[in-house]
């Protein structure tokens, strides 16, 4: 079945802690207690763009005008089947998360979330989508928005011709969707030649701090086209990628300047309502999610957008995803899905699984009913381990482990270079 993408052109068309502990529901568990190392199977592995993109590292790339940039957001044509409960046989590790980090510069603004009313599309799944609000002059530069940004990609040629979104989860470690840096199933020929990340991008501000890279890491099953998907490269288990960033033109790492988000796995901060509440809320596994990104149809992709909605766990067979209602469109691909976004108020009780600003997914695909989806962060049939080193479970744990710690990937090894977390 062919893939479809939202095209962003001139005409608009409808369509935890430094000690590396896991925050789990109600307690902290040391990851070392699991002691499960990565397996060495072809499905349970990742692949880097290093060799394919080596010749482009020093090449100067141009950028198309904003209105000519295209999106790579896949379109889901699948009608939802009956939802399956969380497959506990596959998940033997507890939900967990690693925290983010504050920038090493003073915070200069307060968080101000949008208060627009809930709306919904033809899927009738409510959401609130808005421009990012708050800050002193440029809202996207406020903490904690500035940990996210706009991603430009060059597929073919020496010009950035596509857009996505991305977020920092380490000092020089960027998280996005695999389809933002690779064409599903096309092997070594599918890589984007180079990407450019601009944190807190806003067309009203000077965006002189740019980070260009040719070094990405994706699951091997995405590269060779064998991932669990409902369509060819759409609604998949492992549409996740990491990008290694260089220092900026002032010699600083992006995360040290802007801070970075935490990340979670196996349904961190997801819950099934207690029996007394199920008459109102139902008995599905879901989380309250904040989505950030740069959809091309919103302010022409020139300003960051925010969406808040319930994210529902969706599983059928070996497929594991999260769905939510959202008005975001192409260009939002790869943007973070966060639980517990914001900062604590003094004296407030926030309950369980309350680690702040934790990414539990990235925008992976959409449809024409204002509904978007994300690959589930955590254990699945391709990445079954409950821990990869001390980086967490499943797909996200394996990717971060390989980027930061795996000695077999000598061009990465970000932890030894002081560039991981």
Structure description:
The protein is mainly beta. It is built from 5 helices and 26 strands. The protein has helices at residues 50-53, 220-224, 254-258, 278-281, 394-404, and strands at 21-24, 27-30, 46-48, 62-63, 70-71, 96-98, 119-120, 126-131, 148-154, 159-160, 162-168, 173-176, 194-199, 211-213, 216-219, 229-231, 234-236, 241-244, 262-265, 286-293, 305-316, 319-325, 336-339, 358-362, 365-366, 371-375. The strands form 5 sheets. Strands 6, 7, 8, 19, 20, 21, 22, 23, 24, 25 and 26 form an 11-stranded mixed sheet that branches. Strands 3, 5, 9, 11, 12, 13, 14, 15 and 18 form a 9-stranded mixed sheet that branches. The chain has a two-stranded antiparallel ribbon with strand order 1-2. Strand 11 and strand 12 (173-176) form a beta hairpin. The protein is globular. The relative contact order is 0.21.
Short structural description:
This protein has 421 residues and is mostly beta strands.
Shape: globular
Spans of at least 5 consecutive residues whose pLDDT stays below 50 are 1-41, 105-121
* Secondary-structure-derived class: mainly beta
Total number of helices: 5
**Average pLDDT number:** 79
- Tell me roughly what share of residues is in helical segments: under 10%
Q: How many distinct beta strands?
A: 26
Output the radius of gyration.
19 Å
Q: Main β-sheet, in a few words? A: 11 strands, mixed
